[in-house]
Specification:
Distance between the termini: 73 Å
Strand content: 15-25%
Number of domains: 2
Order of helices and strands: EEEHHEHEEEHEHEHHEHHEHEEHEHHEEE
Shape: elongated
CATH topology of the largest domain: Ribosomal Protein S5, domain 2
Radius of gyration: 24 Å
CATH architecture of the largest domain: 2-Layer Sandwich
Helix content: 25-40%
Length: 353
């Protein structure tokens, strides 16, 4: 029997619908996964089998074929565990095959059947609304993040047993309600009022904050350059909901969203070490991921000890500073990340300090 469950892949900061097709056939028992999966997806065979058995369900002793379509899109990470498990259960007629036709499913399975956190839930939820899906099934730890998207029913999943009971109509799972807590900081901010002295520098920072200007501070060690730079985000204008969702999407994809903070409402402050590579600064990898300039989007990028950064690293900042975005090209394609940040740099007057 053939079953179909819909999931999602992340490319850059956007999502792509993945059709998880599961077919059970006679033959030697085993699971084969095709559709350009990476190692983590291939390993889901062991996680899914143990999760189904330890949840008190029956893993079919048949030849199981799993196809992740479209095959041209590389599938990464463990977020396909839950849709593969549901596809196997639907194909073996342990749950109704038609209850998930209007839903996206994402989640990593533990061996005991519990559902773990996955990255990129916010862009997945946005894609679900864009493509006309009415529900999304996500781990309970990520439900508040997915609920930020309006007009979408978010079902928080604790474990596979609970989900199967709900799909069979026994114990419905109440949907997650949208909760946006006002002024809930994602990280600690330095209060600008706590900085004593340096009135001329504070005045310059106020002008830069009002006009969105970049800043270079030159002074001896111990003058307070780093403290003043860390206090800058506290006097920047508050982010709008659209800006907050934009920043949260980046941190969700990078798996850097702070725990219990579904929506980042404070402007980011990033201070990479001067040994950072150009790929770490602007983004990179075999399949590009956001770099420090994208993580500083709508916030502040602080480069302390500016002359210590390599020439190549500083040169790659030219285009993002002008275009407010960065495009990274690889053999398999190119991705564009936002990079609208305010650059703050600090240095000593001479190498001796």
């Amino acid at each position: 029997m053939l079953a179909r469950v819909f999931s999602c892949a992340i490319l850059g900061l956007d999502g792509v619908i993945v059709d998880v097709e599961v077919d059970l056939a006679n033959g030697l028992p085993g699971v084969i996964i095709v559709g350009l999966p990476d190692t983590a997806v291939q390993e889901s065979r062991e996680r899914v089998q143990s999760a189904i058995q330890n949840s008190g369900l029956l893993f079919p002793r048949k030849h199981v074929r799993v196809n992740l379509a479209p095959a041209a899109v590389r599938k990464e990470g463990p977020s396909y565990d839950l849709p593969i498990a549901l596809g196997i259960l639907a194909a073996s007629e342990q749950i109704p095959a038609d209850v998930l036709t209007d839903a996206l499913v994402v989640g990593e399975l533990s061996l005991d059947g519990s559902v773990r956190h996955v990255r990129g839930v916010l862009p997945m939820a946005a894609l679900a609304v864009e493509k006309g899906y009415h529900r999304i099934l996500v781990p309970a730890a990520d439900a508040a993040e997915a609920a930020l998207i309006p007009e979408l029913e978010v079902i928080p999943i604790q474990d596979l047993t609970q989900l199967c009971a709900a799909l069979n109509g026994n114990f419905p799972i109440p949907p997650q309600q949208q909760e946006i807590k006002a002024e809930h900081p994602a990280w600690e901010l330095t209060d600008f009022r706590e900085v004593k002295g340096q009135e001329h520098v504070k005045r310059a920072l106020e002008i830069a904050a009002a006009g969105g200007h970049n800043i270079l501070m030159i002074g001896p060690p111990g003058a307070g350059k780093t403290l003043l730079a860390r206090a800058l985000p506290a006097i920047l204008p508050s982010m709008t909901i659209a800006e907050a969702l934009d920043v949260t999407r980046i941190y969700s994809v990078a798996d850097l969203l702070p725990k219990d903070v579904p929506l980042i409402q404070t402007r980011p402050f990033r201070a990479p070490h001067h040994t950072i590579s150009h790929a770490g600064l602007v983004g990179g990898g075999n399949w590009p991921h956001p770099g420090e300039i994208s993580l500083a989007h709508r916030g502040v990028l602080f480069l302390d000890e500016l002359p210590e950064f390599s020439k190549q690293v500083l040169e790659v900042l030219r285009q993002p500073l002008e275009d407010k975005m960065v495009t990274i090209s690889r053999a398999r394609g190119s991705l564009t990340f936002p990079a609208n940040f305010q650059l703050v740099a600090a240095m000593n007057p001479c190498p001796c300090g």
